[in-house]
Structure formats: C-alpha cells, structure tokens
C-alpha cells in the first residue's frame, strides 16, 4: 500500500471517528505521562571537531569515478559507492531496486583500512579545530583572474577538494534505555561518507539533503571513546553558483530506545478547513528495533504553539489512541484523524497570521513512555485556481515572492539561524510574502522560520536531472539518487505549513528533449505525488512551450521569464537567442485549470549606489558596457542602480509588473530573481565574486530597486524614494542627471534647489516619450545637476501623502555604527549585524565614500565577517579591514559561547573620527 492509499483509508476511517467523537473524547484513557522522555534526546554535535582540507585527493577514495578524477590512477582507487548506496534503500519504493549491502560492515572496513584519516588511532591534533556549521571555503582567499580552479560562477572561493572531519564521542551503556544512536546531518557538501571506529557506516552524496547514519552497530559503550570520521569530497564544476563546502549545516546526535518514531517519521495534513473546524490527519511510523514483540500504544495530543518562543500552549485535541503490535525489527504505520474546533489558521503574514500547532506523539510500552516525537504543523487550506490564482483559507493571496539561494552572504553556506531570520525580516519589510528555495533543499531551520514568520514556500530540490549543466553536477548520480533524494526531501519537509508546493526541477535540460525529457518529468513528478498527494508538483520552465510534452506533467505552470516575455522589448532587438512574447495567455489557454505563476522574473542587475550616465530611455534594457547608456562599466565592473538594466534574457521590474497586471487575475504572482544577492553567478561580470541580481545586496543593504518593489507590494506604506544620490563632484555640475522616484503615490512633484521640475502622474507623464512611459516609476530625465537638495512630495487624491529630501553631503568626517540587535546571546551562534555608515560632519551619509575601514572588538565576542555588498571586492570575508562601498560597510559580530558582558565594537578610517558601539552579550 502506498502512502497515498494509506492516507486515503486513514481518511475514511477517520471520518467515522470524527463523526462520532468530539475532539477531546477518548476511546482509551491516556496513561499518565512525563512531558519529556529520557529515551529520546537530540543534541547538537557541533563542537570539538578536527578538520583538514586536502585540495587534491589524499586517500584514493572516490564515491565513483567522476570527470574531475581524470588524473587519478583508476587501479589505486577505492570506490565507496557500493557501501553508500544502501543508505538509499529506505527511500526506494520497489524492494527489487534496493541496493545489496556488500558483505557486511567488515567489507567496507577492509577496503578502507589503508586510509589513515578514517582510523581511530590517527593523530589529528595538528588539524584545525572547528565548530559546525562550517564552510571551509568562505574565508578564501578568492581566486582572482582567469584560468583559476574556481571561477566567478561558483564564487571564486576554494570549495574544491576533500575535507575530513573527526571527533570523539563517548556514550553511556545500554542500561539507560538509550540503545540506538544516530548521526543526523542536515547537509554536508558533498559526497559525505561516515566512518565509526574505522568502519564505513554510511553517507549521502547530494550535499543539500539531510541524512541519518545509524552509529549503533559500531559504537563502543560504557564510557569508551569512539571516533567519528566524516569525509566530504567537493568537485569543481559541480554547480552554477557557490555551493559552500564541508559540514555546513547542523549535525545532531539523536538517541532513542528500541521502540521509536524513525527519521522523518510523521505526516500531518489538514482538510475541510473552515473557521468553525478542521480535520487533522496523522500518520505515525513506529519502529521496533528490539528483539521481542512489543505492544505499543500511540497517543498524540495537539497543542497550540507559540511561534516566537517555540513553546507549547493550550491543548486543543487528542487523537484516538492507537495500539499496534510489532515483532522485533518490524515497522508499522499508525493513522488517526481528529477535528479541531475553531482552529487558529496558518496564513501568510501580509493579511493573515502564521498560527501553528504541535502534535506531540507519545509511544507507550507497558504504560511507560518510550518515545516522544513532536511535529509542528499548521491548519490551512490552499487552493490553486487556474482562473483566479492562489487562495489561502479562502482569501485570495497575491504571490509577492523572491528567489533565495542558500548562502548567507559573508557567512557563506554555513547555516546560521539569526542570519537567516534577518534575511526574512528584511524581506518582510519589503512586503515579500513568498520564497522559492532556489534550487535545492534548504536548512531545516529555514522552514521553521518561514512557518513561524508566515512566508509561503516553493520547496525545490534539483537544478539538473539526467542532462548536465556542469560536468560534475547532480546528473552524475541522478540515476541512483533521484528517487531517494526526492522521497527523503519530501518526508523531511512535508509537515511545514509554509510549504505550499514542491518543485522537482529548475530549468532542466529535459525541457529541450521532447518525449525523452517528458518521460523523466513524468517519473519524477509521479514519485513526488506518491510521497505527498496533498500538494501540487511543479518544475520551472524557461524553455518548454505550451504545446510541448514537458509541461503537462505538472500541476502548476511555473514559468521562468517566459511569462512576461524574453528579449521582446525594443531595447533587446539587436540580441541573439530565443525571443518570446509574453506566454501567460498561451499557457493559460493550454492549461486553463492550472495555476500559473512566474517562478523567476526580472533578473534585473545593479550595484547598490552606482549610477552611470547617460541613462537609457528604455524601461528595460540588456546591460552592456559597449553603449554609453548600456548600464555597465567595463572598468569598474559595476552596473547602474537606475534599475533599468537586466540580464540579456530578463526584464526590468517595471516591465514584469506591466505584463503581470495585463494578465490578472489568472497569473497568481511572481518570484523575483533574486531577493538577496548571492555568491557566484556574477552576471554580467564573471571576474566578480557575487551576483548583481538582488533587490538587496550581499551585505543585506537595500538597493534602489527595493523601494520599487516595496511601493508595489506595500502600497499603503507612505513613502517616496528618490534616486540617484545628490552628492556628485564638480564633473557632474551642469550635466543631465535624471531623477527617478519610486512611490505608491499617484502624483509626485520634484524640486531641485527649490525649483519645481514638474508634477507627474503615474503612467501618464512618467516618461520622456511613448516607449519610455512606465506606470510604476516617476521619472524626470532632463534634470540638470547642481549641488544642493532634491525634494520630492508624493500625493494621493490630490493631497500630500509622503515626502523626502536628498541633500548633497559634505566631506567624509566620521562613522556611524548601528546594530540590528544590541543584545545577543552568548551562545557562539547569535549575531548582531552592524551597519557602518561614512558620514559628513552633519551626519549625512557620504554616498560615494570608499574609505578603507578597520574594525576591532573588545569583550566576549568576535568579528564573524565583514562585507560591503560590492560584488568585485576580493577582500576575505573574515578580514577586519574593508573598504566602504558607496558609503556603507557591514560588520557581523558574534557572541562567544558561554560568555556574558559588554562588547565594544570600534571602527576607524583615515581622516575620520573613530566610532564605537556597545553590545550586550547575555
Ligand atoms: C590533469 O593533469 C593535467 C596536467 O598536469 C592538467 O593540465 C589537468 O588540468 C589535470 N586535470 C584534472 C581534471 O585535474
Ligand atoms: C576482512 O579482511 C580479513 C583479513 O584479510 C578477512 O579475514 C575478512 O574475511 C575480511 N572481512 C570481510 C567482511 O570481507
Ligand atoms: C532620451 O530621449 C530624449 C527625447 O527623445 C532625448 O533627447 C535624449 O537624448 C534621450 N536620452 C538618451 C540617453 O538616449
Ligand atoms: C567606470 O569605472 C571607472 C573605474 O572605477 C571610473 O574611473 C569611470 O569613471 C567609470 N565610468 C563611468 C561612466 O562611470
Ligand atoms: C523614444 O526614445 C527612444 C530611445 O531613445 C527612441 O528610440 C524613440 O524613437 C523615441 N520615440 C519617440 C516617439 O520619440
């Protein structure tokens, strides 16, 4: 029976139960219980690791022969694949396709016994001591120039090579009831293999997926020391962006007793969601790893969950107790349903609240709790309407989304909860309500955050299938791992309220291969549907057309750039490559019942605070540095922040808005490429380290584009934003310096040094001529620069609504430090992001300042990273010295683990008054 069938029959049984039982009525009285059980523990295993990176293969171990192994002698290699493949079996539906376990653990021990780093006795004291999450590449140094091992596409950082991580582990004896020990790895980049006391115990190749290794058979008990050795092997040319390197997410030690809920062992779904009530369906997997038969009672209670504190609140329901009898080494599934009265619904933050519940499942054997397993979930209905768009809990919700890569800027791929939360806070301020996880499974904690903060999520797994985008990418292992990776991913993330759809592929090559590609699409989407019959399956299409065999395999039409059209504006006329007019109507006609959204829009490019002249008259033009108004600078490798230029397949925000609005309401919204800048993929300047696509730069500073999106997504927020800055040197005096305004006002008037430049109405007099009129920005393209001030006033219904003044700044005189949080935890994780502004004597930011700055801290903390958002800056992210970029820099401060007290951050720069800021570490 598939999970789908299991769910269906559970639902039928449950309906009966719901009809006759009130939510709190119980068929079986509940045994009294402790809230926590000593038999399940989950501990972060993040400290006391020793690490060493070998830029080239040090041990002749390979998962399998890859193109980058051309120079290794095949005879001397040990291939790990046969020992790793069995880890996939739990996620392969057909037992006939399960991989044999090669002659027990001993075989693997024998075949790797010559590898010193795997052996317990190896002396690793000379290795670096590291704390996880750890990204070995982020400190650099950057590879600069051409013909380097890692170029701009992958972020110019030393991601390649083999990394070994080792640590000891002491566990108690069997008598305490904790009999099974699992290493739970949230992500390891990549081709992870794990040895316990010299024996190869498991692993997982795909660097973005979570996996579990059972340590139990290999552990010495009773206080004896065990050695865990984890090897990752990260290839060059394996990604279109910066992947990070090493144990870059959390690693946990999970202990359970014989009878327990296995990895990703629950599924909670909701249906018949109304204000008065909803039905919750629950599946609990139960496993008995002991020897004798066990009679197990499964008791699950539902509590309200406080999203801020993570604490349980009021109990609201209890599932009927289920009893199940398990032989030794047997697994069974228990299903139940319950009604919740007047549920507090989960919905996206713009208009609804992200209320959550937690289902606490307790397993009892002989009236003793033997396991407690918590599952957070939300009660919500999501309807995907082909004509009217997306409805959450009956309310139409426009998707105001962005794409986010997994890196956290200067902190790299190393996951950090606060850094992720900060990104979401900045996106929420923008008015963003949805995130597409492009193009890989996120850290589990990121989904906890999207649940709690109320973002809708498209959860995506693959960037390539069988056909390669890079020689060493996922296509090498697709045949073996597409099914297990997909099933494991969906089981891990299926209970998250924020996840509304699964994307099984991004711009895969199979779009181009007609029936052959469609066969793969069909297989992959069928697996996803089997794992989760409740959510739609999609794959993002930048090429497949409505009449091709690829799109019908998906439940949602997810378009990258094709919706608003590719290269179809006059400014793109001279470019080669595909040109398509907006395809929203053609897809809607071909698939009238399927929801359509744009999974990638815009691909606009800019460098924060850089303005290049002359300014194009077009609203959307490909960036080039060979035309005067092309928006790019061939010397500085910066792109103009007038926000009119895009990648050569893209469109400005203005053009996307126009097309989306022309095809309302059936186009459900967009995911902008991209929310934040990210490491790698620095179109159009591959000499750089990081992207130009972001609405927000790599340091988290708002580009001008931020205000264009905010004015559309939060139209009631009173704001007029003026660009460019008004602090030009003598060279611009008397020069045409267009003034553009982003505002949700319906009229704006601009004055330069008190002289009105005219009052303009949105969409009418906004542009210079017919081709340039934009309904989404106000522009005065003939303004002539003189130092002084630009004043802008926005009007609604003829009344003043918002105003702003931009003044010419004086000489740089000092620094201003502003922390996003002045109190942080002394836990070795928590961060304060401190913005450094170069200011004149009156406190105005000096918008072109590029002064070299230096930072230091005193007290219980350290500088984790610095940045400035400049895609061309090759200073290491761990440097305490950094130039300001257009007036700003960022210092990320981390509290020391176990420390408390005052921490002082000091910033200095030549010719500037030093500044300091005090933070409290608690
Ligand atoms: C193999 O070695 C040759 C010669 O040293 C070198 O040019 C080439 O880049 C190497 N190839 C790989 C995949 O390492
Ligand atoms: C491991 O090697 C030893 C010594 O060569 C041999 O006796 C043993 O059978 C091997 N074990 C396995 C499982 O291959
Ligand atoms: C924009 O158009 C105006 C009016 O046609 C023209 O005077 C101006 O030179 C153009 N500017 C650019 C940068 O092309
Ligand atoms: C391009 O960048 C170079 C180097 O920073 C600078 O000297 C030049 O003025 C820039 N050109 C324009 C048109 O801004
Ligand atoms: C508007 O400006 C564009 C770009 O400079 C130019 O190609 C076009 O001819 C102008 N259109 C009109 C009607 O003046």
From TrEMBL:
**Glycoside hydrolase family domain span:** 815-918
Q: Is the Hydrolase keyword given for this protein?
A: yes
Which stretches make up the DUF4982 domain? 734-802
The segment(s) forming the Glycoside hydrolase family 2 immunoglobulin-like beta-sandwich domain are 267-380
> What superkingdom does the record give?
Eukaryota
Question: Is Hydrolase among this UniProt entry's keywords?
Answer: yes
Record's signal peptide = 1-27
Give an example GO biological process.
Answer: carbohydrate metabolic process
- Stretches assigned to coiled coil: none
Read off the InterPro entries from this record.
Beta-gal/glucu_dom_sf (IPR036156), DUF4982 (IPR032311), Galactose-bd-like_sf (IPR008979), GalB-like (IPR048229), GH (IPR017853), GH2_Domain-Containing (IPR051913), Glyco_hydro2_dom5 (IPR040605), Glyco_hydro_2 (IPR006101)
Q: Which Gene3D superfamilies match?
A: Galactose-binding domain-like, Glycosidases, Immunoglobulins
Domain (Glycoside hydrolase family 2 catalytic) spans 388-542
Keyword annotations from UniProtKB, A to Z: Glycosidase, Hydrolase, Signal
Q: Which GO molecular function annotations are given, in alphabetical order?
A: hydrolase activity, hydrolyzing O-glycosyl compounds
Q: Which NCBIfam families match?
A: GalB
Membership in a protein family? Belongs to the glycosyl hydrolase 2 family.
Q: What is this protein called?
A: Beta-galactosidase BoGH2A
Q: Which organism is it from?
A: Parachaetomium inaequale
């Amino acid at each position: 029976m598939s999970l789908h069938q299991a769910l269906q029959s559970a639902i039928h049984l449950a309906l009966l139960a719901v009809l006759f039982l009130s939510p709190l009525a119980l068929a079986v009285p509940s045994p009294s219980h402790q809230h926590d059980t000593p038999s399940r523990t989950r501990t972060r295993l993040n400290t006391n690791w020793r690490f060493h990176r070998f830029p080239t293969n040090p041990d002749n171990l390979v998962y399998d022969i890859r193109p980058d192994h051309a120079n290794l002698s095949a005879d001397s290699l040990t291939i790990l694949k046969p020992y790793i493949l069995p880890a996939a079996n739990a996620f392969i539906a057909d037992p006939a396709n399960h991989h044999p376990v090669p002659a027990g653990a001993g075989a693997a021990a024998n075949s790797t016994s010559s590898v010193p780093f795997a052996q317990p006795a190896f002396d690793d004291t000379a290795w670096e001591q590291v704390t996880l999450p750890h990204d070995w590449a982020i400190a650099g140094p950057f590879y600069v120039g051409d013909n380097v091992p890692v170029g701009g596409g992958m972020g110019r950082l030393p991601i390649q090579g083999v990394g070994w991580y080792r640590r000891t582990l002491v566990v108690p004896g069997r008598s305490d009831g904790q009999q099974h020990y699992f290493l739970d790895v949230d992500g390891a980049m990549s081709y992870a293999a794990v040895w316990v006391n010299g024996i190869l115990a498991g692993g997982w190749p795909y660097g973005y997926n979570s996996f579990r290794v059972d340590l139990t058979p290999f552990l010495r008990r009773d206080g004896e020391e065990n050695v865990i050795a984890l090897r990752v092997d990260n290839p060059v040319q394996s990604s279109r962006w910066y992947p990070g390197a090493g144990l870059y997410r959390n690693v946990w030690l999970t202990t359970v007793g014989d009878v327990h809920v296995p990895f990703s062992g629950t599924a909670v779904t909701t249906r018949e969601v109304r204000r008065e009530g909803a039905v919750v369906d629950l599946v609990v997997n139960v496993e008995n790893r002991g020897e004798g038969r066990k009679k197990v009672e499964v008791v699950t209670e539902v509590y309200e969950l406080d999203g801020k504190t993570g604490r349980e609140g009021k109990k609201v329901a209890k599932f009927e107790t289920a009893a199940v009898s398990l032989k030794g080494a047997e697994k069974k599934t228990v299903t139940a349903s319950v009604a919740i009265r007047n549920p507090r619904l989960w919905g996206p933050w713009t208009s609804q609240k992200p209320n959550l519940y937690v289902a606490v499942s307790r397993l009892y054997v002989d009236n003793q709790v033997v396991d407690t397993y918590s599952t957070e979930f939300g009660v919500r209905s999501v309807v995907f309407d082909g004509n009217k768009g997306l409805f959450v809990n009956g309310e139409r919700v426009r998707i105001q989304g962005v794409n986010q890569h997994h890196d956290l800027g200067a902190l790299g791929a190393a996951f950090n909860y606060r850094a992720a939360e900060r990104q979401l806070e900045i996106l929420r301020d923008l008015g963003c309500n949805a995130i597409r996880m492009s193009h890989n499974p996120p850290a589990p904690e990121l989904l906890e955050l999207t649940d709690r903060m109320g973002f809708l999520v498209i959860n995506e797994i693959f960037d390539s299938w069988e056909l390669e985008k890079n020689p060493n990418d996922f296509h090498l292992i697709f045949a073996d791992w597409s099914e297990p990776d997909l099933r494991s991913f969906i089981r891990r993330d299926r209970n998250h309220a924020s996840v509304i759809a699964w994307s099984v592929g991004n711009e895969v090559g199979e779009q181009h291969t007609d029936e052959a590609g469609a066969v793969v699409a069909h297989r992959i989407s069928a697996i996803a549907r089997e794992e989760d019959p409740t959510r739609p399956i999609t794959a993002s299409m930048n090429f497949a057309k409505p009449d091709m065999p690829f799109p019908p395999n998906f439940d949602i039409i997810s378009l990258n750039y094709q919706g608003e059209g590719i290269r179809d504006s006059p400014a793109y006329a001279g470019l080669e490559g595909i040109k398509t007019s907006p395809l929203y109507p053609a897809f809607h006609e071909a698939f009238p019942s399927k929801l359509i959204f744009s999974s990638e829009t815009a691909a606009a490019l800019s460098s924060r605070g850089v303005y290049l002249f002359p300014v194009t008259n077009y609203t959307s033009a490909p960036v080039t540095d060979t035309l005067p108004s092309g928006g790019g600078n061939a010397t500085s490798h910066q792109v103009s922040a007038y926000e009119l230029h895009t990648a050569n397949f893209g469109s400005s925000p203005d053009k996307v808005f126009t097309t989306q609005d022309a095809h309302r309401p059936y186009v459900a919204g967009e995911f902008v490429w991209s929310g934040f800048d990210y490491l790698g993929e620095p179109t159009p300047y591959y000499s750089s380290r990081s992207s130009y696509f972001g609405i927000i730069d790599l340091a988290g500073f708002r580009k001008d584009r931020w205000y264009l999106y905010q004015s559309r997504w939060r139209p009631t927020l009173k704001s007029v934003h003026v660009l460019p800055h008004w602090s030009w040197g003598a060279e611009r005096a008397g020069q045409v310096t267009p003034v553009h305004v982003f505002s949700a006002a319906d009229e704006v008037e601009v004055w330069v040094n008190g002289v009105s430049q005219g009052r303009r109405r949105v969409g009418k007099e906004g542009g210079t001529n017919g081709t340039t009129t934009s309904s989404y920005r106000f522009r005065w393209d003939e303004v002539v620069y003189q130092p002084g001030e630009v004043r802008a006033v926005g009007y609604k219904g003829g009344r003043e609504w918002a105003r702003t003044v931009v003044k010419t700044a004086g000489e740089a005189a000092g620094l201003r430090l502003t922390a996003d949080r002045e109190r942080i935890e002394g836990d070795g994780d928590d961060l304060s992001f401190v913005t450094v502004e170069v200011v004149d004597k009156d406190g105005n930011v000096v918008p072109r300042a590029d002064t070299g700055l230096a930072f230091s801290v005193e007290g219980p903390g350290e500088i984790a990273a610095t940045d400035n958002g400049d895609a061309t800056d090759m200073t290491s992210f761990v440097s305490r010295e950094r130039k300001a970029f257009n007036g700003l820099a960022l210092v990320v401060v981390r509290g020391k683990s176990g420390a408390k007290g005052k921490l002082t951050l000091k910033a200095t720069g030549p010719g500037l008054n030093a500044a300091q800021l005090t933070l409290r570490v608690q």
